[in-house]
């Protein structure tokens, strides 16, 4: 008998917010990546790795104010 595949687990908007450390309402300010799944008429989901890649590539909120380290 072939091994059973583990079903994919998609993150909901509240789970995405929790994963990146923001409140769910804050997600409305972000342009999220295209969802990996359309689960219903209005319900979408993302794979954890999709959100992790997107979050890692997001510009830091502090980047415009960051100062380079001293070169002394």
TrEMBL record:
The superkingdom listed in its UniProt entry is Bacteria
Name the record gives this protein: XRE family transcriptional regulator
Please name the source species: Nocardioides nanhaiensis
List the lineage, top down: Bacteria, Bacillati, Actinomycetota, Actinomycetes, Propionibacteriales
């Amino acid at each position: 008998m072939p091994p059973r595949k583990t079903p994919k687990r998609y993150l909901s908007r509240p789970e995405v917010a929790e994963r990146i450390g923001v409140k769910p309402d804050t997600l409305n300010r972000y342009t999220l990546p295209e969802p990996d799944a359309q689960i219903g008429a209005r319900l979408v989901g993302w794979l954890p790795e999709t959100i992790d890649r997107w979050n890692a590539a997001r510009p830091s909120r502090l980047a415009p104010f960051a100062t380079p380290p001293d070169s002394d």
